[in-house]
Structures are given as C-alpha cells and as structure tokens.
C-alpha cells in the first residue's frame, strides 16, 4: 500500500496563478452575454435605493490613473451596496460639450470657416461619441459594472431639454440676468470663464510704479503733487479711469528730491527702500476720506483719473493708491460704478488692444506691457520697473494666462439664494469631514456665476431679442425651446431662424414688425454637468433624486459639487446629494503631478495588460484615497504579493473542502472543538470589521483586515494546524468535518467579502464552488456576522492567551532550528513552563496542544529551572528532539510507530485510520 494515497490531500482545479490579463476579458465577455448588470437590478428590485450618481468625465482622450481611482472607488461602493440590502443602479455618464472637442477638431485640420455652425457641431458630436466608445471600453476593462449600453450623455436631446428647463426655472425666479462687468476672460479660448475653470500657476510679470499728476486738488492738495500707484499689469494703464484710496487710511505727501508723491503713510518706509529714496520728507498728512473726488491726470492721455474711496484698498503691498481700471477688475468695476463711471475695456476677444487704446492698437496685451512701460518712461511717469514671479490665474484647459475683462455676459445670481445654499451644505454628510468647510467657504465667498460662453459647441442660451433689444425669456418661450430640443436636439437652434424657433404666432411689443434675433452664446459646460440631477436623476425611471452620494476628486468642490448644488437649490431648494465623498489626485512616487513632459505617467491600460484589472482595483482599495495618492510600479508589485496571498488562501481552502457537502457534512458550532470555534468567531469578527469599513467607505480597512486574516489567522495558524487533521484523519472524522465546516464558511465568506474589490477573482472562484445560492457571486448578499455573545467573548479571551504563548513557542522552535537541535518542528518535543497564575492553561483536554504548536510531543511543566530552556515574554520553553520513530504517513515522531505489525511504519493513530478506511 502506498500510504501517500491514503492522505486526503487538497484537490482543486482553481489555478494558482490568476493569469488576469488573459482571463479577465473572457469573464467580462461572459458578464456581458449574461447581462449581469440587469440581473443584479432585477434581484435587488424593491429594496431601498442607493444611488451613487456618476460625475461625468469629459469625453476626450484615454484614461489616466485619476480616472481609474475614481471609477473603481465608485464601483466598489455600488457593488457593496447591491450586496448589502440596497437597490444600487449605476448609470455612467459623459460630459460632451466645450472647447477641448472644438480644439481637437481644429488640431485635426478641420476648417470651421468652410462650414456652417450646425455642420461643425455635428462633427463635434461625432467626435464625442468616438471618445465615449473608447473610454467606455477602458472603463469596462477595469471591471466597472454599470448600464454601459444606456449611459447618460450631456449632448442627448432629452438631457439638453431638461437643461433648458432648469435655466428657465432659474430665470423665472429672477436668478438669471445679463450684465456688463469684468469676468475671467481667456484670450487663448476666446471666451469668458467661470471660477471653476481657473487654476493658479506662477507667472513672471512686470512690476511698475507710476505717478499720476494732480489736475484738481480741490483745495486739499497742491497742483504739483502726484499720486503714486503700483501695478503688475502695465497693459491696463490705457484703461485707467481712476485711483482708489482707503477712507480710513492716513495718507502722506512725501517730498522726494523735490517731487511730491501721495502714498499711504504706513507704506512710506517700505517704499523708501523699494524705490531707493535717499532724501525724503513727509510734508503733509491727511485722512483718505479727504482725497475723495480729487482729480488726477492720466499719464499719457488727456483724460481725468478720479480719486475714489474704496474699502478694497489694502496696505499689504503697493502704495495704498490703487490703479483703477473698471473694465479690468471686479473691485475696480464696482467702485467706479458707485461714482457713475462706466467700464472701459480697450481689448478684443483675442487679447489684442483696440483703437480705444491709442499708441497700442493691434498689440497683443502681453506685448503691450513693454510698449506701455516705454511710453510711461518717455513721459516721465515711470518711477521703477522690475519683475516679479507671482501666482496668477490661468485657463485650466489651455494652460494660458487669463485676464479680467468687462463684457456683457449672462450670470446666475448667487447672492439671491446664498443662505439656502449654505443651509443645504449643512444638511449634507461629508467624507472626509473637512469637505464641508471647504465647500461652505467657497459658496460663502463666491461671486455671481458667469454662465455664458462665446463658443459654438454647447447648449445655447435660450434667449431671444426683440427689435428694440429687449431680451425675451418667458415660460412660453422656454417651454417651446425645451420641446424643440427634446425632439431635434440643440442643433435646431443653429439650423433655424429666431422666428422659426419661437412659438407660432408669437408677438412682442418690442418687435412691431415681428422680427426677432436669438442669443448666440452657449452655456458654461459646468451648467451642463451641474444639471444632471434633472437630466439624469429626474429624467430616468431607474434612478431617484436626490442621489445618496456624489463621489469625485477634491477639485470638484469648486466644480461639479458646486455647480450641481447651485442649480438644484435654485430650482428645488435642496442639494442634489445626501452625501459627498472626495478623493485626492494621483501623483508619481516623488509626489509630482504626472505629465508626459516629465515622463512619469503610469497608464492604467498598461498596468492592466501586465498585471490585471483586479490588481489595479486592489491597489485602489489599499490607499488612503481621501488624500493625494502616490503611484509607482513598486506599489503594484507590493499589492500583487497581497493578491497572491489572498488567491492562494482561497485556493487552499477550496482544495480542502473538495469532499465536503455542506448540506450533509456540516458540524454545528456547539459540536466543534474550541480551536475551530475560535477561528469561526474570528471569521465573524472579520465580517463585522469588513462590513463596517465598507459602510464608512474605508476600503483600506477592508484590504488590511482581509490580508491580516488570511496571513495571521489562516496561513500561519489554522490552515497550518489543520493539515494534521484534514489530511490525516478519516474522511468523516468529526474533527475533520468540523474543520471543513469552518473552512467552507471561511471560503464562502472571503469570496463574498472581496467581491466589490476583486470581482473577477471572486467570480472565478465562485464558478468552481458547487453553490446553489446563485450563478454568480454578484447575485448574492454580503455575509451577516453570526454573533455568539458571551461564548465568543470567552473564546477570544482564552485564545488571546494561547496565541501569545504560541508565539513564544514558535520563537523557541526557530532558535532550536538555528542551533541544529531539530530540523522541522514535527521533530520536536516542547515543554512549556508558565507563570504561576497561568499554570494548567495548557493542560486542558479539549485542545490537542501538540497539534496546536505543530510538534510531535508536548507537555506543560511546573519546573521553573529547566536546563537549556529559553525564557521568553510569556513562557519558558524547552525544545528537544522528540522520542520515537517518524511515522511515514503523518510524519510525527512517535513511540507508537511499529506497535501495529500490519503497518509497522505507522504510528498507532495512522494505523487505525488506515485500517478503518483503507483496509
């Protein structure tokens, strides 16, 4: 007889290696064929909704690691919710309007001037769908489950129609208006920008000090006095119409070598150093309020520059006298308006100076900086020129500097319902908690929202104009345009005349001849995505409004979180979300932003092709995503090791329950040995820990809990000691069936717990299990912890002591191995001496301590003076060679080997097992 044939070794066809790059696509194909998303929805129908509303990525380009982080986080949450008592539909979406697509087509050689606006827009739409199809393939390859065949897309007619209705409702409430005031203007995009489209980067700028001579001192200042201003935008000097001073500051007339200059008194010392005044004296001091309406003269135009009082003036830098160009600054605009001065903005859409700026017409504004400075020097008004590097606003798409420029734009008033916005924020749950303060402060401090853009690829602003210039924006026109857009899409706006777009027979007192024109600006794309709560959540039958959760990068506090909140509160008085969850950015291993120029970009597709999507997903679960996350190849290697541990653990479990039928072979908890009960209790603890982590979106907690359980409880303990029972005992031995019961429950539990993070691996293992519960693990629920109350508490307390002692025994065995006293641990006899208050702990009959320590012979002794014993933290341990012969079947050293003459090479236990089961 070959004794090895009598061992019940693990049997499984579940592969040791996942071969994920090759196997995942096959599994995804199977999911598509089975329509697993629809099956999940059907299974969970009738449960309470949990809607995670997808913030739409922009339909342009391949996915980067930020996309992967974002979509995998969403998928983990949705998968978990669908397995924990909720109906959790997930509808992915795309943001499809805006400048990048226009630019992409121009870069491909499309000549906009050779086609109509409608034709160009059709090309933009086709390009957007190409990008959507490309990104959809990549998102699906990540294992993200959703309604991919029916996503929401912001260019779809039904979405655009809803957007028009939101605009109309806000207009009806008085929140929409057209006004002339400075806005962020991007010459590189030739369009106005919202605050959310601005990013700050360092920029080198000229720093100049300029004098303005007094023309009318109003009896307060002499005619030979000059005001001194400071600016970093010389190109705005041609637009200067005034100088602002603070009414509460004290101002000084400083005589510098015979030239008298007005500056804030507290800045005199600073200016003396900055401008290298060697001989100066203060001739006059006066409050800022006394300077009101004094008239200065523009340095090189025959034009007045009025002295105005402004609370915005600071003494942090400069001179305390602020160059005021109402066409190029928000504070400038409002202070000038209060003095009846209109804005002057001598610059066109492309950033080129106009005829309203004599000497500089035709110059790009940045080129005008030098020309203006030279003109100031020529007329003797330039007091100093230097250069500074400072943080300056840039267009976040083109990465080029922006300017402030007064133009007629459409705005959404924030001030009229700011208090409602702030209240809605207070009623929202934030993860992380600091998100509340961030969004609250942004909304508290933000100005009105500029919603018009001078582009063509977007949703038109649905406003008509009468012959007399009156804007027409009524319930009737909004309703009619919304219906047209739902039927034909927004391209109809550019295909038909204004009259054809108006309701039939429409009249207006401002158009006695029945002639009308239409607005040609489009809406800010943030208005598009900001209305998804209506265009998606309200529009679709499979979703609900408000959503339970919005989850995006931390930049969306100023973007999508903000715009969505604004439109939702404006029309319905509530936030569109009950909770907000934000994640950080993905950086390289050195904490730098990933960019092609630095050569530090890690592309998700490359990692997936090399290691598999489940590795990317496991990496996502391993990081603290609420902060910025560093990504490197070493991260993925480290995660791959953890993946292998998890995979091999479930493989080992599966192999050891091959002959276990849970319906016939299960052993009740009460009939198990304490060691099995203990591991069962630890499994219930794992369920509670993991589910709590999932519930709080703490996926690193799931990652560490599962890894620690596989490593600490299973691999290095239970599965190790189980071999002496599961391999050795007869097939139906109660101890073996008890261990298999625990193993089976552990396997099913682990597979379910990892499903949201590792869906491919979990479903792969599920296919090898003979489980009648469901065809796919995705169609099951999370395990519920089986609470054992006081019994569990006693088991934990008892085994906490025993496991601590076991650690000491393992250390002693290692020492003995190193000293060549023994080879394998089964060659050892271990004697343990415990402290007096714990003596007898290792003499209990319900635990086989030789098995527990994986040695051949064990005893507890009270002899505190054992020679050669090792004194450790909790016990004194003596390791010596076990007495007897090695059993050829179980490999333990036993004095009973040879007692059975039929099987002289076996110990008494093995001989008995063989006789009973293999005779």
Automatic annotation (TrEMBL):
GO annotations of cellular component type: cytosol
Co-factor binding details: Binds 1 zinc ion per subunit.
Subcellular location(s) per record: Cytoplasm
An annotated Gene Ontology molecular function: tRNA binding
Placement of sequence motif 'HIGH' region: 57-67
Function description: Catalyzes the attachment of isoleucine to tRNA(Ile). As IleRS can inadvertently accommodate and process structurally similar amino acids such as valine, to avoid such errors it has two additional distinct tRNA(Ile)-dependent editing activities. One activity is designated as 'pretransfer' editing and involves the hydrolysis of activated Val-AMP. The other activity is designated 'posttransfer' editing and involves deacylation of mischarged Val-tRNA(Ile).
Subunit and partners: Monomer.
Protein name (Swiss-Prot/TrEMBL): Isoleucine--tRNA ligase
Organism in which the protein naturally occurs: Sporosarcina newyorkensis 2681
């Amino acid at each position: 007889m070959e004794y090895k044939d009598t061992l019940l070794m693990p049997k499984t066809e579940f592969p040791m290696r996942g071969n994920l790059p090759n196997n995942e696509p096959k599994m995804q194909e199977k999911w598509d064929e089975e329509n697993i998303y629809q099956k999940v929805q059907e299974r969970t129908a009738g449960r309470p909704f949990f809607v995670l509303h997808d913030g739409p990525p922009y339909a342009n380009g391949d996915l980067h690691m930020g996309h992967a982080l974002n979509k995998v986080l969403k998928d983990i949450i949705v998968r978990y919710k669908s397995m924990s008592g909720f109906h959790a539909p997930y509808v992915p979406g795309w943001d499809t309007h805006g400048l990048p697509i226009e630019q992409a087509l121009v870069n491909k050689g499309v000549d906009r001037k050779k086609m109509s606006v409608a034709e160009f827009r059709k090309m933009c739409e086709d390009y957007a769908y190409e990008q959507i199809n490309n990104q959809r393939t990549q998102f699906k390859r990540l294992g993200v489950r959703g309604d991919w065949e029916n996503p929401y897309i912001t260019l779809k007619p039904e979405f655009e129609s809803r957007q028009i209705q939101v605009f109309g409702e806000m207009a009806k409430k008085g929140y929409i208006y057209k006004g002339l005031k400075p806005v962020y203007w991007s010459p590189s995009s030739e369009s106005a920008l919202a605050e959310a489209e601005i990013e700050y980067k360092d920029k080198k700028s000229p720093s100049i000090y300029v004098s303005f001579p007094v023309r009318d001192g109003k009896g307060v200042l002499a005619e030979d006095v000059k005001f001194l201003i400071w600016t970093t935008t010389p190109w705005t000097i041609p637009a200067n119409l005034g100088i602002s001073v603070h009414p509460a500051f004290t101002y000084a007339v400083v005589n510098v070598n015979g030239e008298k200059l007005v500056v804030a008194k507290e800045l005199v010392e600073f200016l003396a150093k900055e401008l290298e005044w060697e001989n100066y004296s203060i001739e006059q001091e006066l409050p800022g309020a006394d300077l009101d309406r004094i008239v200065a003269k523009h340095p090189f135009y025959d034009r007045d520059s009025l002295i105005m009082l402004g609370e915005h003036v600071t003494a942090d830098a400069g001179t305390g006298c602020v160059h005021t160009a109402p066409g190029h600054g928000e504070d400038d605009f409002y202070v000038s308006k209060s003095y009846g001065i209109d804005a002057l903005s001598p610059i066109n859409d492309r950033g080129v100076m106009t005829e309203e700026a004599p000497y500089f017409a035709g110059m790009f504004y940045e080129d005008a900086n030098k020309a203006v400075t030279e003109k100031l020097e020529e007329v003797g008004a330039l007091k100093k020129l230097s250069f500074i590097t400072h943080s300056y606003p840039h267009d976040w798409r083109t990465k080029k500097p922006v300017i402030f420029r007064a133009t007629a734009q459409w705005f959404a008033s924030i001030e009229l319902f700011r208090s409602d916005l702030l209240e809605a924020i207070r009623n929202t749950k934030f993860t992380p908690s600091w998100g509340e303060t961030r969004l609250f402060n942004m909304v508290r401090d933000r100005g009105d929202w500029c919603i018009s853009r001078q582009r063509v690829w977007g949703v038109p602003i649905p406003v008509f104009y009468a012959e007399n210039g009156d804007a027409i924006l009524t319930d009737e026109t909004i309703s009619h345009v919304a219906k047209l857009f739902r039927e034909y899409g927004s391209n109809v706006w550019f295909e038909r005349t204004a009259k054809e777009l108006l309701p039939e027979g429409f009249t207006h007192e401002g158009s006695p001849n029945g002639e009308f024109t239409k607005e040609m600006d489009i809406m800010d794309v943030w208005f598009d995505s900001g209305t998804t709560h209506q265009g998606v959540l309200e529009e679709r039958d499979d979703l609900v409004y408000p959503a339970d959760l919005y989850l995006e990068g931390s930049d969306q506090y100023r973007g999508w979180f903000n715009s969505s909140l604004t439109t939702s509160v404006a029309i319905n008085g509530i936030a569109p979300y009950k909770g907000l969850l934000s994640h950080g950015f993905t950086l390289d291993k050195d904490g730098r932003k990933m960019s092609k120029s630095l050569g530090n970009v890690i592309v998700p597709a490359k990692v997936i092709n090399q290691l598999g999507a489940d590795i990317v997903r496991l990496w996502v679960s391993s990081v603290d995503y609420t902060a910025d996350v560093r990504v490197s190849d070493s991260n993925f290697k480290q995660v791959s090791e953890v993946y292998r541990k998890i995979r091999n653990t479930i493989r080992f479990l599966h192999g050891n329950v091959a002959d276990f039928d849970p319906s016939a072979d299960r052993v009740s908890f009460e009939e198990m040995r304490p060691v099995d009960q203990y591991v069962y209790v630890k499994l219930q603890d794992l369920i509670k820990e993991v589910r709590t982590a999932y519930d709080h979106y703490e996926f690193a907690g799931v990652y560490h809990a599962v890894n620690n359980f596989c490593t600490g409880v299973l691999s290095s303990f239970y599965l190790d000691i189980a071999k002496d029972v599961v391999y050795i005992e007869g097939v139906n031995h109660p101890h073996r069936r008890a261990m298999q019961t625990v193993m089976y429950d552990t396997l099913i539990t682990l597979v379910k717990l990892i499903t949201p993070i590792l869906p491919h691996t979990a479903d792969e293992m599920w296919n090898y299990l003979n489980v009648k519960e469901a065809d796919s693990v995705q169609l099951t629920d999370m395990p519920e912890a089986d609470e054992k109350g006081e019994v569990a508490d006693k088991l934990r307390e008892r085994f906490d002591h025993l496991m601590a002692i076991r650690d000491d025994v393992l250390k002693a065995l290692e020492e003995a191995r190193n000293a060549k006293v023994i080879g394998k641990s089964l060659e050892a006899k271990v004697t343990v001496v415990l402290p007096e208050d714990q003596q007898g702990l290792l003499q209990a009959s319900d635990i086989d301590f030789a098995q527990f320590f994986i040695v051949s012979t064990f005893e507890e002794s009270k002899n505190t003076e054992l020679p050669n014993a090792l004194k450790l933290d909790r016990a004194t341990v003596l390791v010596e060679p076990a007495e007897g012969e090695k059993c050829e079947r179980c490999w333990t050293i036993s004095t009973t080997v040879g007692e059975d003459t039929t099987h002289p090479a076996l110990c008494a236990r093995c001989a008995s097992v063989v006789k009973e089961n293999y005779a």
